[in-house]
Specification:
The chain is an alpha+beta fold. It is 30% helix and 17% strand. The protein is built from seven helices and eight strands; from the N terminus they run H-H-E-E-E-H-E-E-H-E-H-E-E-H-H. Strands 1-2-3-5-4-7-8-6 form an eight-stranded antiparallel beta sheet, sandwiched between helices. The longest helix is centred in the middle third of the chain and has 18 residues, at 73-90. It is globular.
Length: 222
């Protein structure tokens, strides 16, 4: 399902940057897609707080990863682990997070109504900050994010560099909360807003490096 008002859907439908992407990067800028599997794509994030900051995005429109059908989770895990290995080899072992909305009004700090995982190569850890502000718990399986659908509570998903995952209830949280925390921890506190600081040079450097990285699974290479 494509959503006409969704920038990700526009970008994935045409294989080129959406109007938003082109306006931020440059009118002549082409696709920023790096990898794909049958149901997911990987691309550098707008707002490169650190170089190598990637997004994992489902091709179909779901408002959060909790809304994915059960059948897609094994593929999502495979893509996530592939990107984790890629970033570890190229930059640093990444942390992974998601602002998980329940609806267009129950947003969980999300600013784009299309599910996406942030995969960020960095040595900083945001877990203590999350545990000090939100109720949450460790989860054993990625599919456990679907528990939030029964609760109808927006959430923050956070996975450490060691691969330990947590879910935090986030019924009220400021927009791009985890990006704000990340930017502060890496020493660029003003660069959390991707619309103000798209990080064009870092996006281009990420594409230049990762498009030439060795890869094991050709289905993930664009």
């Amino acid at each position: 399902m494509l959503q006409a008002a969704c920038d990700f859907c526009v970008e994935l439908s045409f294989g080129k940057g959406s109007d938003l992407t082109r306006n931020l990067l440059a009118p002549e800028y082409g696709s920023r897609l790096l990898y794909q599997s049958p149901n997911f794509v990987v691309m550098p994030s707008l707002g490169q707080i650190v170089e190598g900051y990637l997004l994992i995005v489902p091709k179909a429109h779901f408002i959060s990863m909790a809304h994915l059908p059960d059948t897609l989770f094994s593929e999502l895990i495979e893509v996530k682990e592939h990107i984790r290995t890629l970033l570890t080899d190229a930059y640093a072992t990444p942390l992974t997070f998601e602002h998980g909305p329940m609806s267009e009004t129950e947003r969980g700090g999300c600013c784009v109504d299309h599910a996406h995982f942030h995969v960020v190569p960095t040595n900083v850890d945001l877990l203590a900050s999350l545990q000090s502000r939100f109720q949450g718990h460790h989860i054993l399986e990625l599919t456990d994010v679907k528990q939030q659908l029964n609760k109808r509570v927006p959430y923050l998903y956070y996975e450490t560099q060691a691969g330990v995952a947590y879910i935090f209830d986030a019924p009220v949280v400021e927009s791009q909360f985890l990006r704000r925390q990340l930017a502060k921890e890496v020493g660029v506190p003003d660069e959390w807003d991707w619309a103000v600081y798209p990080g064009v040079d870092r996006i281009k450097s990420t594409l230049a490096l990762l498009q030439h990285e060795p890869h094991k699974d050709p289905v993930l290479w664009l």
